[in-house]
Amino acid sequence: MKNKVFLKNVLTLVLVFSSLLVFGQAKPNVVILATGGTIAGAGTSATGSEYVSGQVKIEAMIDAVPNIRDLANLKGEQLSNVGSQDMSVAIWLDLANRINTLLAGDDVDGIVITHGTDTQEETAYFLNLTVKSDKPVVLTGSMRPSTALSAEGPLNLYNAVAVAASPLSKGYGVMVAMNDEIHSAKDVRKMITTPVQTFQSPQEGMLGTVIFGQVEYFHKPLGRHTTNSEFSIEGITELPRVDIVYACADMSPDLIDMMVKAGAKGIVIAGVGDGNMNAGTLEAAKKAADNGIWVVRASRVPIGKVLIKGEVNDKEYGTLCSDELNPQKARVLLMLAMLKKRNWDEMQRLFIDY
Ligand code: GLU
Predict the structure, then answer these.
(1) pTM, entire model
(2) Which of the four, 84, 167, 206, 272, has the lowest number of CB atoms within 10 Å?
(3) pLDDT at residue 92, as a whole number
(4) Which of 245, 239, 113, 246 is CA-nearest to residue 185?
(5) Residue 85: CB within 6 Å of ligand 1?
(6) H/E run at residue 129
(7) Can you tell me which atom of ligand 1 is nearest the CA of 41?
């Protein structure tokens, strides 16, 4: 009798393994962390533009996507349910810590994050610097709410899970998968206010494509990230206040002083052109830097680098240049960089390396 049971067990194992060989590998395990956004948004009309972000819960979102469970064993967790204009440092820290815990285990192969598109690039970049794993972490969202005609959220979620589940995706850092394209956290920008082709990497190009779940990469992202990042949020409960000021013709120089008075420890200037600002503002920036405030020159121009020695010599003024980071990503980097005491050269190096 015992022998019969033993034989039956052996036969079952042989059957399971041979079916894995015939039908492919066991499915990867992917966790979807939901934070809200238009992908979870709902409106009263399928053709109207009015809606409210963050209404649909993650279980309902997964159930709305046909065949998604064929790609991976899925588990959903609701971390927040906000429009991403309300994304916060507190949610970023929660997200990064949760991802680090999940990915440290052998039972999770990849993470998908559903997120509003307004600040998705900032969250992606924050995670690119603070996640300590080479397993795929993929953000997605949608421009049309779940109730809209031709809502693109379900296919975006399907494709994001395909990217997170793909063995090809290891080591690419944090990515954004939307509208059939895969972008690196560092390069991606929200370029257009409302159409579905909003996410682009205008200078560096997309990393690859994901078309009905078929993943293909064209190149690897440059710059340090994830397992190669020197930043850590272990034990961190808040980040220093860093504000952004938008430059323009005849800009008011007292804005910098006002930010410092209000408690900013760092300031990013979305400068004109090559990170420029008028003479009064440059003087105010120098004064702030002399008083221990980190001031970064970025640009309001959507594409291109800010040069260390253009019209402003940063070392002379005590300012930093953002290199390729747009103002919102320069702010993320500065907040993390300020967690450790660093001199000007060390600070500037970070903007070049990451
Ligand atoms: N404000 C919304 C958000 O970021 C709109 C953008 C979206 O999700 O598409 O959550």
Answers:
(1) 0.91
(2) 167
(3) 98
(4) 113
(5) yes
(6) helix 120-130
(7) 8
Q: Which CATH number fits domain 242-353: 3.30.9.10, 3.10.150.10, 3.40.50.40, 3.80.30.20?
A: 3.40.50.40
Distance CA 273, CA 300 (A): 7
Q: How far is the CA of 35 from the centre of ligand 1 (A)?
A: 11
What pLDDT score does 49 carry?
85
List C-alpha distances in Å: 183 to 109, 160, 203, 220. 20, 11, 12, 10
Q: Tell me which residues of the chain have a pLDDT lower than 50.
A: 11-23
Domains 22-228 and 242-353 share a fold: yes
How far is it, in rounded angstroms, from Cα 162 to Cα 241? 37
| pLDDT at residue number 50 | 87
> What's residue 3's pLDDT?
59
Which tokens go with 268? 């990013």
Does the C-beta of 37 come closer than 6 Å to ligand 1?
yes
Domain 22-228 CATH class label: alpha beta
Q: Which atom of ligand 1 is nearest to the CA of 37?
A: 10
257-275 tens-digit pLDDT? 999 999 999 999 999 999 9
Cα 39 to ligand 1 centre (Å): 8
- The two structure tokens encoding residue 196: 């579905």
Identify the residue whose C-alpha is closest to ligand 1 atom 6. Answer: 117
**Angstrom distance (rounded) from CA 312 to CA 321:** 9
For this structure, is 35 an active site residue? no
What residue spans define the domains of the chain?
22-228, 242-353
Going from the Cα of 223 to the center of ligand 1, the distance in angstroms, rounded, reads 28
Q: How far is CA 83 from CA 152, 164, 337, in A?
A: 17, 23, 27
Please report, for residues 208, 217, 243, 345, the alpha-carbon distance to residue 214 in angstroms, rounded to integers and kept in the order given: 10, 10, 40, 44
